[in-house]
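Sanity check

After download, print the first record. It should look like this:
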Amino acid sequence: MKKIGFLSFGHWTPSPHSATRSGADALLQSIDLAVAAEELGADGAYFRVHHFARQLASPFPLLAAIGARTSRIEIGTGVIDMRYENPLYMAEDAGAADLIAGGRLQLGISRGSPEQVVDGYRYFGYEPEDGDHAAMAREHTRRFLEVIEGEGFAEPSPRPMFPNPPGLLRVEPHSPGLRDRIWWGAGTRATAEWTAEQGMNLMSSTLLTEDTGVPFHELQAEQIQRFRDGWAAAGHTREPRVSVSRSIFPFVDDRDRTYFLRESASQDQVGQIDGGLARFGRSYAGEPDKLVKELAEDQAIAAADTLLLTVPNQLGVDYNAHVIESVLRYLAPELGWR
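Expected structure tokens:
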């Protein structure tokens, strides 16, 4: 059995060709899609976070709203750029959203990806030492993980406005169990090994910022195996989770063919990000029987316990619910995912 959810970038643009034309559209439609996905039997609703862009940005109001409207589906991010985050404020927001959702948050965090502006985290008030923004992201992460454990660390005032419990105080509200539901978005095999050392779950997308010449799914499967080996070596007691994301579009009506016929010939691509080689995974589009054969050969999907379907959110809630339903109905049973 495999958990199947969706991942939305929450794009919006004021164009007559978009069903999502404003920030309000992106937010409200995200809630509606999560509700629809839960009704269809999907397992997760995940959202990308980008700053200075016509996309979803501040995730916690959205996650809390979805938590209040749903009862079963996992709610998460893929991913929050930790270069921009105040760890203690984030711990408060995450704790509140998780309590509203009844402990269903699955937070994907990471160093982040190239953004819309140069060094955007500086506008948020963060200046990395020696210009090392990746180290700053990891330090923010270390502090966030420490705080959500729930141990007290702040000295209480001798003259508090309200009575305090005994001992040092912690950030409130605290949500027990949230620490085990933090994922790191890893772009390399080495980062996956670091993720295992930190005791975080592994989130891997359709992009790896390295290339060894093998097909994307094989390189990603190696990344996942290195993560699992690192987890065992670290001696963690719980079972870790691993997610991969894919663009999958079964052709079950004319709309699917109109939108994605070109993607039926999709292949891996090699490009550059931040001056280094990167390998991009292919999309899957075609008749269901063709996709069943192709997806059965994807080693990384087989190695993961969670599959996130990247959805074209600007095509609207109804169409994206149709895509999710098509995967659940026509592909998942044939592949043993359900």
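If your output differs, re-run the checksum step. Summary of this record's structure: The domain at 3-152+171-335 is CATH 3.20.20.30 (TIM Barrel).
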